[in-house]
Specification:
Blueprint: H1 2-26, H2 48-75, H3 81-98, H4 104-116, H5 119-126, H6 128-131, H7 133-159, H8 169-197
Length: about 200
């Protein structure tokens, strides 16, 4: 059971990235470079229902993946905080999907992801002894790219709109969202590989 739950960690991010790209490309007048992921399934969008169902399914898989990490952490006596953050990330996603843009709660749940994007740093600090120095280094690098650079790119237009044209905001958002999903793939494969080695 634990292995199956952890395996979701490399499946759902790939499905999400490909699915969001396909749905975006098939949406009339939607521009992946300029527009956010939320706009694919915003109220009134032709993809409203499809995006809601798709997103909720993906986020349920994220929660299950977090539960798998929790079981792994319990078995090997590791700190469970990173698993809690993965679970909360999935729950936030469910909330964002349930309340489509421009609903106020959509932005509330979406903003909470800035907390859960600290997950790579928690893994680096809490799991290094068990999973090694390379795991720590990759986690720190992903934290820097996803949380630091990604957050600056996503929030900076509110404070300094001249940093880059808003015409590229869709790319900026995908940098942080896709980056975190790619990190989930890395976590899943690392845990599965560790399990096979012992």
């Amino acid at each position: 059971m634990r292995q199956k739950l952890i395996s979701l960690g490399w499946i759902f991010p790939i499905v999400y990235i490909l699915g969001s790209l396909i749905l975006g490309f098939t949406l009339p007048e939607y521009n992946t470079v300029e527009q956010t992921l939320s706009e694919i399934g915003e109220e009134g969008s032709p993809r409203y229902i499809i995006w809601k169902v798709f997103s909720i399914c993906i986020d349920i898989c994220s929660v299950l993946f977090g539960l798998g990490i929790m079981l792994f952490a319990k078995h090997y006596e590791l700190n469970r905080t990173p698993a809690v953050f993965i679970i909360c990330y999935g729950l936030s996603g469910i909330g964002s999907a349930a309340f489509a843009s421009p609903h106020l709660l959509h932005n509330v749940f979406g903003a909470s992801n800035l907390i859960w994007y600290c997950t790579p740093l928690l893994f680096a600090l809490m799991w290094t002894v068990r999973l090694g120095r390379m795991f720590r280094n990759i986690s720190i690098i992903m934290f820097f790219f996803v949380m630091v650079i990604g957050t600056i790119l996503n929030l900076n237009p509110m404070f300094d709109p001249l940093l880059y044209p808003m015409a590229y905001y869709g790319i900026a958002q995908r940098f942080i969202v896709y980056g975190f999903n790619i990190y989930c793939v890395y976590i899943a494969l690392t845990i599965l590989k560790y399990r096979d080695q012992i």
